[in-house]
Amino acid sequence: MVSGNIFKRQRFMHYDASFDCANRNRRTHANDQIIAKLKKLPLQSRLEMNKKIMDRNRARRERACSNEEGVSDVESLITIEDEEMDDIRLDSDVFATVKPLLDAVTIRELNRANKEDAMKEKETRSTAGNSEWTLEPDAILTKIDATQPNPISFPREMFFTAKHKHTFPLAFFTPKNLSFINSNLHKIDRTRVTHEDKKYILSISDMEKRIKEAKTGPSRDEEMTVLDWWKAYDNYYAFKSSRAMSLEKTPRALFFKSHFNFFVNQEDSEELYDIWRPYEVKLRQRHYELDMEFDAAIDRGLEIKAIHT
């Protein structure tokens, strides 16, 4: 179904013995007038016609199995250009629409081409050009105070991902999980921000998968114990604060300061953790969805609802 070899892909219509028959009947491209009309058909129509042609060819081959000559005139497919096939494979919505019209070999080739492109993009992103290599000053070492908690750092890739409105689970912010993320940042998959944009952000689903496999801590908020929550919330607030120039005075940072303090400072907060935890998650989600300010009345209402549920 593909003409030419721009991407070194083979034609998907394989050689057939009937092509060599002197008296072979031309079925699809019967004459120049029909060929001209076929070229003017929209892509969808040509794919639909090719599907019917492939079905008829399959039936002919099955009948030919009982024929001593073993030759059955097959119909040639209508040409689909390489550029058109690339448009199909590069647009997931278009590919899903026309996939029922393609044969297994074509689908396999398109998937293979996509995988090759993804590998090339990954190699391009991971290989810096000569102009990017510059001498760097020696590292400035920091003395660690054994009486204080280990310093927490957030990789810039997390800030860039959050900038594009992708929300990290609170579970990622336990000290062990953050340490794991920093140490394994180069292994985490990236995903393109948009189909047109060439900027890449961290794949949150891949981060969740790797944390779960490494067993460094909870990979989802639903898995957090009260101890996990206590260890993570302050780091989460610090991350939100350090994203902005005005630090803790930003609206979102103020929300999380009030939000977390509300749950921390409630009487019997630790004992009732399993009851209020789902509502705490729900409030964080509503904050992101609605850009909602902190409202103690709403939090209090959900807390009362949780206790009496």
Describe the model.
Mean pLDDT is 76; it is low at 1-13 and 303-309. This protein is mainly alpha-helical. The radius of gyration is 30 Å and the shape is elongated. The longest helix has 23 residues, at 104-126. Helix 3 (82-90) packs across helix 5 (104-126). The strands form 2 sheets. The chain has a two-stranded parallel ribbon with strand order 1-2. It has a two-stranded antiparallel ribbon with strand order 3-4. It starts with a strand and ends with a helix. Helix content is 51%, strand content 3%. It has 2 domains: 2-125, no CATH class; 156-307, no CATH class. The protein has 12 helices and 4 strands; from the N terminus they run E-H-H-E-H-H-H-H-H-E-E-H-H-H-H-H. A hairpin with a 7-residue loop joins strand 3 and strand 4.
Class per helix and strand makeup: mainly alpha
State the distance separating the first and last CA atoms: 61 Å
Shape: elongated
What percentage of amino acids are in beta strands? Answer: under 5%
Please give the share of residues in helix. Answer: 40-55%
Quaternary assembly: single chain
Mean pLDDT: 76
Low-confidence stretches: 1-13, 303-309
Number of helical elements: 12
The count of β-strands is: 4
Total domain modules: 2
How many strands, what sense, and barrel or not for the largest sheet? 2 strands, parallel
Widest sheet: strand order?
A: 1-2
Element order: H for helix, E for strand: EHHEHHHHHEEHHHHH
Radius of gyration: 30 Å
